[in-house]
Amino acid sequence: VSRITVENVTRRYGDVRAVDGVSLDVAHGDFLVLLGPSGCGKSTLLRMIAGLVPPSDGRVLVDGNDVTETPARDRDLAMVFQSYALYPHLTVERNIGFPLRARKQRKADIRRRVAEVADILDLAALLDRRPRELSGGQRQRVALGRALVRDPGAFLMDEPLSNLDAQLRTATRTEITELHRRLGRTFVYVTHDQVEAMTMATSVAVLNRGRLEQLGTPTEVYDAP
Ligand code: ADP
Ligand code: ADP
């Protein structure tokens, strides 16, 4: 189901409060954008939601369970990184199938699911290639595929378009928005780009110096004084 509840979460690094007392409730099917300038705490907040960084205070609940108490492979979440984080020595097929192999699913089932995902993301012709033989946009689609393959309840994305050129960025933005509509899953998406936030989000959380400054629909946030 993946309802995400962020309860008064703080993360300190030494004297820096990367995230400072943030509370948020993300309903199933929302597209929440975490928006703000570099260094405002977006990545740290996303990583806490993913369970990759433990909060100094507060907690993150996914469907009522503290994410840090759920074993990583049982979390109903998938993360997509800015840098793609693909395995360079593995083919597209094996990169996408990786999360299923790690969970010891049957080979035939993995092949079928990878084919489905490759179809959705227009990667079917590229399954035998390795990441270095792909364009930036194709790599990002493989990274999306690896997130999609487990059919998680929520997708967490950290500036997934920032390594793409302007034209590809617009096209991929549209693809991600369509993916959200099609899947009806929860998306939490980090960006410093206001246009991305306004065109993709169902709700926007504006962060400033670790604090939640505004929360609302794109129109509410955009029209705020
Ligand atoms: P954003 O994603 O908005 O650019 P970050 O969450 O990456 O912001 O960083 C927020 C603040 O926390 C910054 O001041 C950053 O330097 C600091 N920070 C983030 N991660 C670490 C870390 N692992 N160690 C020390 N400081 C960190
Ligand atoms: P981004 O803002 O694109 O997420 P960063 O360059 O801010 O990338 O951070 C990359 C990695 O470095 C992250 O794992 C983050 O936690 C860590 N990091 C960020 N700021 C600091 C810092 N001041 N000291 C140590 N690690 C940091």
Automatic annotation (TrEMBL):
GO terms for molecular function: ABC-type transporter activity; ATP binding; ATP hydrolysis activity. The keyword Cell membrane applies. The keyword Transport applies. One of its GO terms (cellular component) is ATP-binding cassette (ABC) transporter complex, substrate-binding subunit-containing. GO terms for biological process: carbohydrate transport. Residues 4-225 form the ABC transporter domain. Keywords: ATP-binding, Cell membrane, Hydrolase, Membrane, Nucleotide-binding, Translocase, Transport. This is Sn-glycerol 3-phosphate transport protein (ABC superfamily, atp_bind). It comes from Frankia alni (strain DSM 45986 / CECT 9034 / ACN14a). The gene is ugpC.
